[in-house]
Amino acid sequence: MRYAMAIDTKKCVGCSDCVVACQTENDVPIGYCRDWVVEVMDGTYPQLEMEIRSERCNHCENSPCVRCCPTGASHYSEGGIVLVEENKCIGCSACITSCPYDARFVHPKGYVDKCTYCLHRVKKGLQPACVAVCPTKCMYFGDLDDPRSEVSMIIKKRKWKTLIPEAGTKPHLYFLI
Amino acid sequence: MREEIIVSGRNNPLIDPQLHIWHWEIPLYLFLGGLAAGVLFFAALYTIRNRENDYRTAVKIAPFVAPIALVIGLIALFLDLHHKLYFWRLYTTIKLESPMS
Questions:
Q1: Domain A3-176 in this protein, CATH class
Q2: Residue (of B33, B25, B32, B30) closest to B77 by Cα position
Q3: Assembly ipTM
Q4: Is the pTM of this model over 0.90?
Q5: CB < 8 Å to A35, chain B
Q6: Do B90 and A71 touch (CB under 8 A)?
């Protein structure tokens, strides 16, 4: 099993509903966020291009954060989801430095926290909070190993990119372009 | 021109507005660690070359700096941790890939 998410940058309007849904679902402390929305403006007037992306942990297959964790608190869980075990984490911040996507932060309680692809919901057969709540239905979540899952189908059909591919992390978060 | 804005207003401490994770503790630890290593290196060098009497301070007194520097450095390293009570996990795991381990 390889869980992955695809986000349609052509459909996303940048409403930040996913951010609020994540904060509510996962009890993210006030002032912190596990996902965020980026607006990119590129080009020279009048040839301007805008892209809106909802970014979060990329749950890389070759994660620098898992590699550099000295205690093994960062680990690959079910379906390749990268998780942090709270009572193994010493809060040394090595993983925060190593993450090319800035997806991690130190929880006020001391351990490092990040997106979990809502594994507690996925285990129950539900979709991650951000995907479930998206008003434009621009996010797709599923299993890459299952050729009939929503993600596999949309990735086959559409052009996509991953963020910072030169880091060699093999992300499981695809942006459809 | 390329402009990237986080429109949902991310403001995670230590990460925004710019990555700023390690404070004075880590530079202090690195400095003291280097100091201890250097002091011991020269003490050993002069001992091996039989020149203890020419460099009495370096060989007889300076090596005492090393353990003190290491203790202070390790205290600084401990202070830097955010989840301090779990520091013993460092001693129960061996991970060759991790530069911190």
A1: alpha beta
A2: B25
A3: 0.80
A4: no
A5: 8
A6: yes
